[in-house]
Specification:
There is one protein chain. The chain has 120 residues and is mainly α. It folds into two domains: 35 residues, no CATH class; 57 residues, no CATH class. It has three helices and three strands. The chain has a three-stranded antiparallel β-sheet. A hairpin with a 5-residue loop joins strand 1 and strand 2. The chain is rod-shaped, with a radius of gyration of 24 Å.
Length: 120
Amino acid sequence: MPYARRDAFGQLLSLHRRAEPDAQQFLPDDAPEVLAFLGQPTHDRFNQLDADFVRVLEDLVDVLVSRNVINLTDLPVDARDKLYQRKGHRRETALSQLNLLGEARGLEFNDITPVMPPPA
C-alpha cells in the first residue's frame, strides 16, 4: 500500500498512501524495509528472537535438572520429547562440536540419563 520516497543512495525517506512525483515505487505493507522504517520488527527478527528464547528456556531446564531442582520426569511427556529432539538435533550439527570455553564443570544435559515412567 505505501509508495516510497528515496534519497540519492536509495535509502527510504518517507512512505505515502498515494503515488507522488518523487514517490512512485510501490512496496507491500509487510515488506521488511517498510516494517523497519515504521519501527516494527520483521517476521525474521521475531523468528530469531523466538529461537533465542527457546534456547534460553532449554538451558534453564538443563540448569534446573543438573541442580536437582526438577526431574525430567516432572515434565509432561510431550515436553520431554521436544527437549530430547532438540538435544539430538543440536548434537548432530558441526557447531555443536565446537568447545570454545573449554571443559564445563558439573553435569551437562547430555550426561543425564532420562528416566521414563513405566507405561500406563
